[in-house]
Design goal:
Blueprint: H1 16-35, E1 47-48, E2 58-65, E3 70-75, E4 80-81, H2 83-94, E5 101-106, H3 112-124, E6 128-131, E7 134-135
Parallel strand pairs: 1-7, 2-5, 5-6
Antiparallel strand pairs: 2-3, 3-4
Amino acid sequence: MAIKSRIKVDPSINMSSMSDLVFLLLIFFLVTSTLVSPNALKLLLPKSTNQISTKPGVSVSIKHHEDKGTFSYYINGKDAVSFSEIEGKLQTLLKDEEDPVVSLHADKSVPLEQATNIMNIAKRNKYKIILATAPE
């Protein structure tokens, strides 16, 4: 005499909750990827443990070409500009800002004099300046 089980297991899986989860993850990654603004330049920044909460309006990057002994200046990580053009471009970009902030990204190998020149431009125009560093 064979005893039959009366409990039947339903092998189907309800996928509606899985699609909701995938949709929420997709939205999360889309939102967080737009918040990240990586610089196109590969700079070796000095390390620091300090953190700030101010979001910079404009970033100025200085890249040192050690083999040529020259420097390249970039505003917002885009096309290279000459040093003489930096002040005018900063004034144009920050003219409508209530509290203008400039973020300075300088290679580890950039002499302090080059960074100080950018800081002097910010001081002349009464901009706040942030020296960007890599986390320790």
